[in-house]
Structures are given as structure tokens and as C-alpha cells.
Amino acid sequence: MAKSEAVKAIAHDAGLSAEAANATYQAIIDYVVRTIRRGDEVELPGVGIFSVTRKAMRNGRRPRSSVRAAHSGSRVVEFRPYFDPLQYFVDTYRRL
Questions:
Q1: CB within 8 A of 84, min separation 6: which ones?
Q2: At what angle do helices 3-14 and 18-38 cross, to 10 degrees?
Q3: How many domains, the chain?
Q4: pTM for this model (two decimals)
């Protein structure tokens, strides 16, 4: 879903103008980004949890020269949905 589609859906479902829906959408996105940058996790009920994990430092190899190089650790955003998609599909097809 693109941003414009999400804004239209918010405007329709909440009975807001397009400008108010866009401001609401942007405020939610800004909040999630600020919180993730601080290193905290964001829990959206019914959707899932955004959190930050650290990747360890590792050794790599440059493909062209085969020289070993150290890759510093990094922070990565992780998303865990509230439902297990595999279990959802298993339950759906079990009912058929």
C-alpha cells in the first residue's frame, strides 16, 4: 500500500479531510522513526512490534582483491508481527 492509498483509507475510515489524514499518518510515522532512533521499541496493537537489534562485528572479504576486511557492527530495525503468518495460512486452509 502506498502512502497516498493509506492516507485515503485513513480519511475515509475516520471521516477526516485529506489534509488531516495526511498529518495523522505523518505524525505516526515520525513517532515510530524517533522512537526507533532512540533505541526503544514501538508496539502497535494488532500490528506488531518494531525494535532495534545490533549486528555483531564480523570479518569479510573484498571480492575483487580477496583482502580481508572487518565490518563494524550495525543497528538494524526488526519487525515482529503479532500473528504468525504461517499459522494463519495453515488455519485458513484447514477450514476449507
A1: none
A2: 120
A3: 2
A4: 0.66
